[in-house]
């Protein structure tokens, strides 16, 4: 009788500013999945088992977590209790910005972590929260292998002419170029296109990632060749609280005429613009679509007519 090979147990963490999504896999089989929402306000947890059935989620305790890093010490023991004696072999993490050097997942080292910390100003809404659970896991179990999977990596296949801004070439060499984001989402879509839409899978396809952050990606042969997001996750389509495509002269005007500081601009462009800024009501499309306020209807029109040119060129 041949013994059945035991697949390694892998944990996957996707940490945002107010939520943490997590799954545990044995090979390709998902055993547990769940999320903690409402961090910093009213946190709540939910979880499902291998067949999609609801199960008891991690107990957030009498002092609920307020940040993504505080969730990990709750998730790991919860998973171990349900997965028995199987040893956790590694943790994988979504990291929004991988910079110029990373076109594929990378093993986390102190050197890589320092490199990613330097990219925080380019993704201030995401990168700090992506990195916090990695640091916490290094504290809890320094020997546990961790792998960073980058949202920017999928777009490194774009032609150099699609990555370049019309600035002096020295800036391009320094890494000031179009990176693109939401790559893990697009990579998954590319992987299932042959099954879901075989007639177009290997042709020219434009895919949209729509959520609080929005972008579009032009693919050819299931490879990224252009995307609406650029150097940061501000560019392209208007989003929940981010401005999307914006004339750089507006930023100069805000600095020179409105005397806005760098910190004020970060707050304005990342947190107070987009659907929230235009409507004055909400960043949530469900609320905007349900509202009879004229500004809510105006915002929906703005989003519906937004048509960044980048993917269309392909």
Overview of this structure, please?
With 314 residues, the chain is α+β, with helices and mostly antiparallel strands. The protein is 33% helix and 19% strand. It is built from 11 helices and 10 strands. It has helices spanning 68-83, 110-117, 127-140, 160-163, 169-174, 183-196, 248-256, 262-271, 274-279, 285-290, 294-305; strands spanning 9-15, 20-26, 29-37, 44-48, 88-95, 106-107, 146-150, 204-209, 215-220, 223-227. A hairpin with a 2-residue loop joins β2 and β3 (29-37). α1 (68-83) packs across α3 (127-140). It starts with 8 loop residues before the first strand and ends in a 9-residue tail after the last helix.
Enumerate the spans where pLDDT stays under 50 for 5 or more consecutive residues: 309-314
N-to-C CA distance: 56 Å
- Average pLDDT: 92
Order of helices and strands: EEEEHEEHHEHHHEEEHHHHH
Question: Quick one: biggest sheet?
Answer: 7 strands, mixed
Individual helix count: 11
**Cα Rg:** 21 Å
Structural class: alpha+beta
Strand residue content: 15-25%
Say how many strands there are: 10
Give the fraction of residues assigned to helices: 25-40%
Q: What is the general shape?
A: globular
Strand line-up across the major sheet: 4-3-2-1-5-7-6
Layout of strands and helices, then pairs:
Layout: E1 9-15, E2 20-26, E3 29-37, E4 44-48, H1 68-83, E5 88-95, E6 106-107, H2 110-117, H3 127-140, E7 146-150, H4 160-163, H5 169-174, H6 183-196, E8 204-209, E9 215-220, E10 223-227, H7 248-256, H8 262-271, H9 274-279, H10 285-290, H11 294-305
Parallel strand pairs: 1-5, 5-7
Antiparallel strand pairs: 1-2, 2-3, 3-4, 6-7, 8-9, 9-10
Helix pairs in contact: 1-3
């Amino acid at each position: 009788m041949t013994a059945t090979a035991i697949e390694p147990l892998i944990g996957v963490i996707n940490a945002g500013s107010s939520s943490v999504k997590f799954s545990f896999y044995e090979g390709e089989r998902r055993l547990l999945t769940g999320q903690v929402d409402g961090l910093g306000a009213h946190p709540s947890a939910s979880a499902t088992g291998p067949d999609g059935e609801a199960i008891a989620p991690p107990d957030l305790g009498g002092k609920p977590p307020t940040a993504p890093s505080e969730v990990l010490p709750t998730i790991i023991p919860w998973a171990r209790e349900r997965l028995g004696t199987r040893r956790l072999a590694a943790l994988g993490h979504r990291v929004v910005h991988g910079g110029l050097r990373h076109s594929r997942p990378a093993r986390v080292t102190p050197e890589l972590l320092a490199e990613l910390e330097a990219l925080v100003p380019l993704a201030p809404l995401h990168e700090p929260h992506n990195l916090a659970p990695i640091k916490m896991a290094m504290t809890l179990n320094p020997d546990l292998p961790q792998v960073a999977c980058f949202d920017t990596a999928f777009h490194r296949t774009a032609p150099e002419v699609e990555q370049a801004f019309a600035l002096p070439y020295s800036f391009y060499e320094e890494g000031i170029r179009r990176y693109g984001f939401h790559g893990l989402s697009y990579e998954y879509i590319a992987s299932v296109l042959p099954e879901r839409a075989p007639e177009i899978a290997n042709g020219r396809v434009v895919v949209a990632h729509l959520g609080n952050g929005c972008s579009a990606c032009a693919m050819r042969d299931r490879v990224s060749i252009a995307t609406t997001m650029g150097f940061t996750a501000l560019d392209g389509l208007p989003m929940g609280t981010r401005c999307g495509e914006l004339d750089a002269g507006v930023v100069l005007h805000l600095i020179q005429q409105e005397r806005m500081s760098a910190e004020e601009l970060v707050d304005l462009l990342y947190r107070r613009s987009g659907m929230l800024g235009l409507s004055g009501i909400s960043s949530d499309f469900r609320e905007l679509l349900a509202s009879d306020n004229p500004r809510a209807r105006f915002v929906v029109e703005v989003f519906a007519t937004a048509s960044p040119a980048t993917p269309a060129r392909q």
